[in-house]
Design brief:
This protein has four domains: 226 residues, Up-down Bundle (Four Helix Bundle (Hemerythrin (Met), subunit A)), CATH 1.20.120.1730; 61 residues, Four Helix Bundle (Hemerythrin (Met), subunit A) (Up-down Bundle); 74 residues, no CATH class; 131 residues. It is mostly helical. Helix content is 83%, strand content 0%. The chain is elongated. Helix 4 crosses helix 5, helix 5 packs across helix 6 and helix 7 runs parallel beside helix 8.
Length: 572
């Protein structure tokens, strides 16, 4: 059975199966339609004919009851307004009865229905005549006669009228029930017939579905399993194709595709192995494939060699960067390849930024600015460590130079007690120790000079005191000699000579003070040059010797002047 189906095309199989199902459905639809039409006719008869007649008869019955009530009320009422309202209600009830009667009689009647209509009309006519007589009596004010006529004839006539209407209603209800029974019989018969046909159609559909499904789904499941295996990379699933239908052709084509994919995968594996072995010029054999597989092999070759070319270009450029040649620029690659461009540009930018930072530190150091620091936060990893190390170098040099500079500045300001930090590392520590030793020796020389200056100041003070004493004594002698002018001419000449000598001594004292001041200035310049200090010290020693000689001569002159003054005083 399945072999026969496999030899048929899928379209023919599906066409035959669906054709049979369509026939069964058409039969089912025809039976359902005919029975539904029969049921529809019965229902239309019930609703449109029997239902309408029953509604009209109930309306006529209600109107007859309203007529009887209005006639009775006319006898009982005394108020004119109430009587007028009741007359209007009576007329309305009669009008409604006539409208319902005309609508009912529009439907044809036969047999019992026609007989009952005639009886109802006769009863209605008798009741109408009696009611008119009662209304006339009630209108004339003869209520007693009207009441007697109502009880004797009006009531029985109205009862017979309603009984005829009720008989019509019962007849109509019986006709309605009969029509309903016929429609229910048609429904049951149609239900059984439809159930039988549906069961047969369902059985045929299930059988056809099972046969068609087995003949189609089996190969499709095999094709799906193979396709899923191919999608997951399995190219060794077995494929068994039987028959000559489209599914057999599909499985054969999938077997060919599987073999081609296996050969393509083997070629890809071979190019991978060759490239891993260093044979980066190995290519996939494009000529071994056809159509899209040939194009895919070409695309793989182009992709591989494109990536290899880009990587080799990147390696060459990074090698140039490693040698210090930053003039090259990596080409602008599209898409995600731009990540490689960004990486190489990042290497170049990092090196350029590093070189710029180092150049800035070198320029600052050459200019004598060791306070400059590199921005290590701008870098990461080894670059950051390099900048931190350069900053440490600049800090060490800056610290050593600051120590020496601070020491020299203190010396220039006359502070010879300042010491540099000799604990600095390397040559900076040795330079600080040598500077400290120089300052200590300079302090000793300045101390010696300060002692010499004190001696000069003391000698100058003694000279000034001697001059002051000499001037005082000379003035005393000049006052005493004024009294002996005649005998003092020779003495005056001598005194004048002594005064000149005294003035010379005073000038020498002033010169000694000036020399002492210049000695102080020389002490100030000692900080700038050691050789000048030594020379000034020798000159100061010579000046001190001259001052000592002048002081000695001044003392001799003062002594002579005192002797001459004493002698002159005795003679005077």
């Amino acid at each position: 059975m399945f072999a026969f189906l496999h030899n048929l095309k899928v379209g023919k199989r599906l066409g035959a199966g669906f054709g049979l199902l369509v026939l069964l459905l058409a039969l089912l639809s025809a039976v359902a339609f005919l029975n539904m039409r029969s049921i529809e006719r019965h229902l239309a008869q019930i609703v449109d004919t029997y239902g309408t007649k029953s509604r009209l008869l109930h309306g006529m019955h209600t109107a007859s009851s309203q007529v009887s009530m209005s006639v009775r009320n006319l006898i009982l009422l005394d108020e004119p307004d109430a009587i007028a309202a009741e007359r209007q209600a009576l007329a309305e009830a009669r009008r409604q009865y006539e409208e319902a009667r005309e609508a009912l009689y529009a439907f044809p009647a036969e047999g019992d229905a026609a007989r009952l209509r005639e009886a109802a009309d006769a009863a209605h006519g008798a009741s109408l005549a009696t009611n008119d007589r009662i209304v006339e009596l009630a209108t004339a004010g003869d209520d007693d006669a009207a009441r007697e006529l109502m009880l004797a004839e009006g009531g029985p006539a109205a009862l017979r009228w309603r009984e005829q209407l009720e008989a019509n209603i019962r007849l109509q209800d019986e006709a309605t029930a009969l029509a309903y029974d016929r429609s229910e019989t048609d429904y049951r018969r149609a239900s059984v017939l439809l159930a039988v046909i549906s069961a047969v159609a369902l059985a045929v559909a299930v059988l056809l579905g099972w046969l068609l499904t087995r003949s189609i789904v089996g190969p499709l499941q095999q094709a799906t399993r193979v396709a899923r295996g191919i999608a997951r990379g399995r190219l060794d699933d077995g494929i068994h194709a039987t028959g000559h239908d489209e599914l057999a052709v599909l499985l054969g084509s999938m077997a060919e595709m599987q073999a081609t994919l296996r050969r393509f995968a083997d070629a890809q594996g071979e190019i991978s192995r060759q490239h891993d072995a260093g044979e980066i010029d190995h290519r996939m054999p494009e000529e071994a494939f056809e159509g899209a597989f040939r194009d895919m092999a070409g695309h793989v070759n182009s992709l591989v060699f494109s990536h290899i070319g880009v990587l080799l270009q990147a390696v060459d450029l990074i090698g140039a960067y490693a040698r210090g040649d930053l003039s090259g620029t990596f080409p602008r690659l599209p898409g995600k390849k731009a990540g490689l461009t960004q990486a190489v540009d990042g290497v170049k930018a990092g090196l350029e930024s590093m070189m710029a930072e180092i150049g800035g530190l070198v320029d600052a150091a050459v200019a004598g600015d060791f306070s400059r620091r590199g921005d290590s936060d701008h870098f990461e990893f080894a670059y950051r460590d390099m900048i931190d190390n350069l900053n440490l170098l600049m800090h060490s040099a800056d610290r050593g130079l600051r120590e020496i500079g601070t020491l020299l500045a203190a010396v220039a300001e006359g502070d010879l007690t300042r010491q540099a930090d000799a604990g600095l590392p390397g040559q900076f520590g040795k330079l600080a120790a040598d500077a400290n030793e120089t300052v200590r020796k300079l302090a000793g020389i300045v101390t010696q000079i300060h002692g010499g200056s004190d001696a000069i100041n003391a000698a100058a003070s003694e000279i000034a005191a001697g001059n002051n004493d000499l001037s005082r004594r000379t003035e005393q002698q000049a006052a005493s000699l004024e009294e002996t002018a005649s005998s003092m001419e020779e003495l005056t000449s001598t005194v004048r000579q002594n005064a000149d000598n005294a003035r010379q001594a005073n000038q020498l004292a002033i010169g000694a003070v000036d020399v002492a001041s210049r000695g102080g200035e020389v002490v100030g310049r000692v900080v700038q040059t050691m050789s000048a200090i030594s020379e000034s010290s020798n000159r100061i020693a010579d000046i001190i010797g001259v001052i000592d000689g002048i002081a000695f001569q001044t003392n001799i002159l003062a002594l002579n002047a005192a002797v001459e003054a004493a002698r002159a005083g005795e003679q005077g």
